[in-house]
Amino acid sequence: MKKLISLAIIVAFAVLLTLAAVENTGRIAIFLPSQRIDFSINFAIISLIVTLFLITVIFKIFKVSGQVPQKIRFYFEKRRQLNALKAHQEMFSAFVMSDSHLADKALEKMLKSGDCADVVRAMHALVAIQHKQYELAQKSLSLISKTKNDLSETLQVLEAQIAIAQSNPIQALELIQHLSSKTKKLTVIRRIKLDAFLSTERWEEALRIAKENQIIETLSETEYHTLLKKIYIGLFKEQNSVDAINRLVAQIIKEHCSAHGLVNDLALYLLATGWVDQAKKLIEANLTLALSNQVLLTYQKIAQAEPKSCLDFTENLVEKNSTNILLLHIAAEIYEQQQLWGKAIVTYEQLYKAQPSPSLAHQLTRLYENANKPEIAQQWKQKFQQQLSLSKMTL
Q1: Which residue in 143, 187, 180 sits closest to 161, CA to CA?
Q2: DSSP at 132
């Protein structure tokens, strides 16, 4: 509507101007030293209007031409930003997918764009670390400006990770030593410290960090038990007295008694290094909570070495778990070693009833002979022959 009114006003003005020009017969004279110029008032008005229009157009052209360089710069800047954004997206994808080839291409694009070069190189170093290309990661980090900024601590953490990977734990600890207290609480820093303490055999400090929830949450149960096993074996190696070993065993029983795999592995180590009583304490504490065939097999080795000291505990365990075949085997072997023939015979007969086999029949034959009962021994000998024949037929 506004445009329509404006157009009507212009048309009206043009009509009025035309009518005025028809009736206007006036002239304008310009006197020069040797000449005189005459022209009508209408021509003068039209010339003035045209001149003003031309001046306006010229000023507009000058104004627009002054903005051309700025628009050209804006175009190229926008193009650079789009390329940088695309390169950032590629670098992010490379980081998520651990694609080192894509990371190299993204690095090249981002450096060409000149956009956040330090951040780009840091991301490239991180991808290289993921691929265990530590020299390439170091090269990327070395090109980053060393001036202190928001990226400084991040770079120190990356350098510490590389130092740990290259078996240089002392350097890793030095790098994270001057980090802010807030940064030191991060899980990645706790893990770097843990790895450094393990590499330098600082077992007490490693154990303290390993017990933190931050570390426990990042590891599976198997990984965590493997970590604790390494630390406790290192601590066992450092101990020089029976009291120190006993204190460490008591600590393990208190904190990890229900962990069958860990307790079993530590007991096997103690058994192999001659600490039989301490291995026995560990295993018995674990078996008191719950039976595990893996742990029972280790206890069987301990019982073979120390049958007398294992007798009472084994009997108590059998009373509570009278159907466990492996436990009955252990009890029968202890009775036999202690020459408790009556108990040994009863236990072996219980085993034979549950799982008849030639070896058990032969064992009972020998036990009855040792107990001076030749008639019963002869009966078991016949059973042994029968079981042996059945086994051959099965084969």
Answers
A1: 187
A2: T
Asked if residues 234 and 266 have their Cβ atoms less than 8 Å apart, the reply is no
Half-sphere exposure of 116 (CA within 13 A, CB side): 15
Residue 292, classed as helix, strand or coil, is: coil
Give the amino acid at 202. Answer: R
- Nearest 5°: CA angle at 170, between 192 and 140? 70
Checking 104-111 for CB contacts under 8 A at 24+ apart, the result is 107/140, 109/83, 109/84, 110/84
- pTM exceeding 0.85: no
Q: Which of 234, 222, 289, 240 is nearest to 266 (CA)?
A: 234
* Residue whose tokens read 């005025």: 20
Tokens 């843990």 locate to 194
Beta strands in 173-284 (DSSP E): none
Is 193 buried (19+), middle (13-18) or exposed (0-12) by CB count in 10 A? buried
- Dump strand ranges (E) for the chain: 27-31, 36-40
Burial 331-356 (b: 16+ CB within 10 A, else e): bbbbbbeeeebebbbebbebbbeeee
- Give me the average pLDDT of each 10-residue run along the chain (395 residues): 75 66 63 69 72 82 71 68 63 56 62 59 70 71 64 78 85 85 84 91 91 84 91 90 92 90 93 92 92 91 91 91 89 90 88 86 84 83 78 58
Cβ density class 106-122: b for 16+ within 10 Å, e for less: bbebbeebebeebbbbb
Quickly tell me which residue has 């802010």 as its tokens.
Answer: 180
Measure the CA–CA gap between 236 and 72, rounded to whole angstroms. Answer: 73
Cα–Cα distance between 76 and 99 in angstroms, integer? 30
